[in-house]
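Quick note —
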Amino acid sequence: MNKVLIDTSIWSMALRRSKPNKREELVTKELTTLMRAYRIAIIGPVRQELLSGISNPAVFEDLKNKMGIFLDYPAKTNDYEQAAEYANICRRAGIQGSHTDFLICAVAVKNEWEIFSEDNDFKIYQKYLPISLYKHSEL
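Predicted structure written out below.
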């Protein structure tokens, strides 16, 4: 089975929420299932987004250590170039997005990975880009 590139929104739900709601519990359960199946993929910019904005140094270190078991997929020059092309395609269609989102799209397409995200922007990108979004029956 192919890997699933996990977006910041999923990591945040699973690792940064103290009182999860039902949806967040389901997302966390699905992430755990993917971990057990060794299907997780992450890129450095997602790691950076996840760790950014944590003001408590102890919480930062704890989360950094938890995430340390996952190795970053090394994005290469052509991944960044493809991400820029995807950003331009979407911009021409009137769609704005983050540099990280388009890098996620580029890396996922190149590797034939699905993207697991709770960010609705990816549903919009999917109308213009050849990305596949991860779906689970319970979500």
